[in-house]
Amino acid sequence: MKMDVAVIRFGLCVMTVCAVLGIAVFGYSEAPQPFYPGGTYDSVIPAPDDVLGFPLGSRPVRFEEALGYFKTLADASPRVRFFRDGETYEGRDMFHVIISDESTMSRLDSVRGDVARLADPRKTTPEEASRIIESTPAVMWLMFNIHGNEVSGTDASLQLAYQLAAGTDEASAAARRELVIGIYPMQNPDGRERFLTHVSQWNGAVPNNDYQSMQHLGVWPYGRTNHYLFDLNRDWFILAHPESRARVSTLLQWNPQVVVDIHEMGSYDTYLFNPPREPINRHINDAVRKWWRVFARDQARAFDRYGWSYYTREWLEDWYPGYTTSWSDCIGAVGILYEQAFTGGTQVKRPDGTVLTFRNAVHHQFTSSMANISTAAENRKALLEDFHAMKVKTLADYDKADVKAYIVDPTKNPSRARRLVERLLMQGIEIERATETFSIKKAQTYWNAEKVTKTFPPGTWIIRLDQPLRPLINAILEFDPRLSTEFLESEREHLEKNKGTRMYEVSTWSMLIAYGLDAWVSGTVPEVATEQVTAVQPLRGQVTGPEPLFGYLVDYSDDSAVTLLVRLLEDGVQVRAAKQPFTTEGRSYHRGSLLIRLNENGSDVGDVIRDAAAAVGATVYGAGTALSEKGPDLGGREFQLLEAPSTALLSGPAMNLYSFGTMWHMLDQELGARCSLLDYHRLGYTDLRKYNVLILPSSGGYSSIFGGNLEKIRDWVNDGGTLIAVDGAAAFLTDSTRTMSKVRLKRDVLADLDVYERAVQREREAGKTVIDSALVWEGAVAEKKKDVQEKQVEPPKKPQKDILEETDLHQRLFYPRGTVLRAIPNEEHWLNFGAGDTIPALLYTACAYMSKEPVETASRLSGESDLRISGLLWPEAKERWQRSAFVTREAFGKGQIILFAGEPTFRSYFYATSRLLANAIFLGPGFGTSPVVSW
Known about the structure:
Blueprint: H1 2-21, E1 28-29, H2 48-52, H3 63-76, E2 80-87, E3 93-99, H4 102-106, H5 108-119, H6 126-135, E4 138-144, H7 152-166, H8 170-178, E5 179-184, H9 189-202, H10 214-217, H11 242-254, E6 258-265, E7 271-280, H12 286-304, E8 311-318, H13 324-330, E9 334-341, E10 347-349, E11 354-357, H14 358-378, H15 380-396, E12 405-409, H16 414-426, E13 431-434, E14 438-445, E15 452-456, E16 461-464, H17 470-477, H18 485-496, H19 511-514, E17 518-522, E18 530-533, E19 542-544, E20 551-554, H20 559-570, E21 576-578, E22 582-584, E23 587-589, E24 594-597, H21 605-616, E25 619-623, E26 639-641, E27 647-651, H22 657-670, E28 676-679, E29 693-696, H23 702-706, H24 710-718, E30 722-726, H25 728-733, E31 744-745, H26 753-765, H27 773-777, H28 779-791, H29 801-812, E32 817-825, E33 839-844, E34 849-850, E35 856-861, E36 868-870, H30 875-881, E37 885-892, E38 895-900, H31 911-922, H32 924-927
Parallel strand pairs: 1-11, 4-5, 4-6, 6-9, 7-8, 19-25, 27-28, 27-29, 29-30, 30-38
Antiparallel strand pairs: 2-3, 3-5, 7-9, 10-11, 12-16, 12-17, 13-16, 13-18, 14-15, 14-17, 20-24, 20-25, 21-24, 21-26, 22-23, 31-34, 32-33, 32-35, 32-36, 35-37, 37-38
Helix pairs in contact: 3-7, 6-15, 7-8, 7-14, 8-14, 12-14, 20-21, 20-31, 29-30
């Protein structure tokens, strides 16, 4: 028996050693080789193995280990400098290193300044540019581990930094001599640490090479995302997160010529790198496309030496400018992507019987990085020449450009416009503020194609396009990016042959549309006195007017009003919201405007309001009377008393990570609102009486999520709860078998579409009836004549059910994939307060929703002729989604159900629709329910 135990222990030891050395226990794997065959190194500079205490690639390095090594390397070598440039939500450092030869490191600021002059031809002469190009290193950045569970890149960055700092071979010396190399080892430290904690938790004594096992994948919420579960490789221009703001700031300081983005993909894949396939963003310069091929040739050669498999193009695109690569392309760098097969930090057995180890993956990433660095070093001068030439051409082509400026009138929502300007300034974009009134002929907004003469007030923001970052500005702000006809033909063919979409991303993304701002483009240069904007000052919150005799008022059109409402409700202030617009003491207020009556609050309410207004930048007006000049008086019933929300957000593995994360981020980070995160596995044991608002993120798995708890949810809503369901959750509740919502999926009511169409028609005609006195006073005769006329018209025959189903199934193939559609709000409905008279709504769904009374359709998509605002929308989708519901509200017992057809907080920058979600949460318990039992 003892012998058997010894044998088992010996076997476990052998397998552990094999795992460390990268040798497969079962199946064939690449034999471990030196990362850099024949390499020689400066013995004074410590190798990763010496500092880590284990062989690099035997397991993934943790955050503190990587941080420690880079600090040690910087201390040991004059060729390396360590920088801290930010902090994550969880308090981890964002850091990078710069590597070059001693001569360059001694004049690093001067080099950076010279490259900055190349980036802006307005600041240098052609002769000076030639001198800089002859004598200045090119700048190259390598960005690792933006997805926390794609771990091999960070480990490769340690070996790469060591090679560049300590390598005595000619290739390493040339890289140092010809380049300034920036290494961002870990763009998402929080996600990486979360993933590695999962991996270490589920690892056993015996190495497991099944990629489906939890040793490889971890558990929800996995490690791909940051703290709030965002994909940071979509956030480059949105800049919702500190990780993104740190790296954008760093890259803009350096104006790089090459930016490499290192990723992982499916375990059964091989290795992917540039060039991409269509669609490619049209604002990417042809010179960048040329360099993709140059770098790919040398990268392929490096892999061919080992016989490693790889490919290019197939699924890689550079369409959406929020990726590392495409954002970099748009600032004039050559963006390059790597995708290494995923190992989860251990090893994976593949269908062909081979085993891919983590050590192999790290070696592939290191080899790719060195290959690209060598290409950049060999082409230093040509890269700088093309970089400068791109900037020169950008400025020279301004006169021929169709769009000369983007113009934003901030009047309707100053705090939201300010936020946009703040994010644009972070990206190095030049902005001016008009100091006087001016007009533009042939100005065009995103709502329609008509060009009109438009007058703008002082304080209007102007973004002129005669600046070096014009490609980036257009890429992130243009109203309607157009896919090439060639790609549309290919996409259409794939859809018709049931091969699925070739779109890897959303089809549109304009920040101006997402923010829902009063934004315009001009084909002429605005002639107006302006001041340059270098920073945006915080909005000054204040209470204005004399000491109020009746109370305080806050107009609800600006986003600061929502943040203020959150603070006031949290502080226990009794707040009311106006159901109708009104004018008092010479000032007009919109629907939703907040009223705080003195007689309903304590004696210190004025101090509470002043503190809250100052904190959030809101303007509050004192009310000296309850009498209104127009609209309801302030003491009447048209001011609804609000109830403070006690909000819960459902979470768990079946949830759409991004749907959950954006709503959590909105509540916690942007609004500062309390929110409980409920694990749906414990729903049966959760006392829902503590909450009066429950939010269901999108998911396709609600049947299993709720299990036997749907009745509990139904009872909770019936007792007065506000249930908010988003996207996939809305689809679940609209199933007639749930007996919850009366809204229906279009595919389930094809035989009754005429009924819904008549309901929509009644909605559109409500309040627009022309009064016919004869009909009113002589109604019997007139109605009789009308009845006779109606009987003479035969109703159209309905198509057969199978034809309707076949047509609907075909139309669903062409559903909107990240397309902005026009939603028409019912402006009297409290869900739309502060949202304006038209709403840009992004949809990425195959579900179209039908609604009619008694359901309240707060926002409905427009008709076919003007449905599309921006992005790809096939004719079949126009026909199917026209006049379908976007946001609905319906009573359910004492409570209510609110449905959103799409993601209202998409990527945390679609403020136009996130306002509707905020209304659902903070106005909903007061406007739409009877109170839940108090806790």
